[in-house]
């Protein structure tokens, strides 16, 4: 186990993580920090509320990305099915052409 210190809104947090995951945890902390910074003036907000808003923004982005990925998977599956149907039709045409010869 390792410990990583991340800074969010000027406050430092020490977070435990697995060996080799330090850079990943630092990137996650930077992502949270960027969400908070993007909210504008948060000086008057309690820390817990700022973190809640950042978590909600990140959860919203995650949900949208999941929905886009699901839609892309469905479109790809439909493309595969259509391609398979075309290949089967072509194979049938080739088979019929071979029998006619």
Automatic annotation (TrEMBL):
<dbReference type="InterPro" id="IPR036192">
    <property type="entry name" value="Cell_div_ZapA-like_sf"/>
</dbReference>
<dbReference type="InterPro" id="IPR007838">
    <property type="entry name" value="Cell_div_ZapA-like"/>
</dbReference>
<keyword id="KW-0131">Cell cycle</keyword>
<keyword id="KW-0132">Cell division</keyword>
<keyword id="KW-0175">Coiled coil</keyword>
<protein>
    <submittedName>
        <fullName>Cell division protein ZapA</fullName>
    </submittedName>
</protein>
<dbReference type="InterPro" id="IPR042233">
    <property type="entry name" value="Cell_div_ZapA_N"/>
</dbReference>
<dbReference type="GO" id="GO:0051301">
    <property type="term" value="P:cell division"/>
</dbReference>
<dbReference type="Pfam" id="PF05164">
    <property type="entry name" value="ZapA"/>
</dbReference>
<feature type="coiled-coil region">
    <location>
        <begin position="70"/>
        <end position="97"/>
    </location>
</feature>
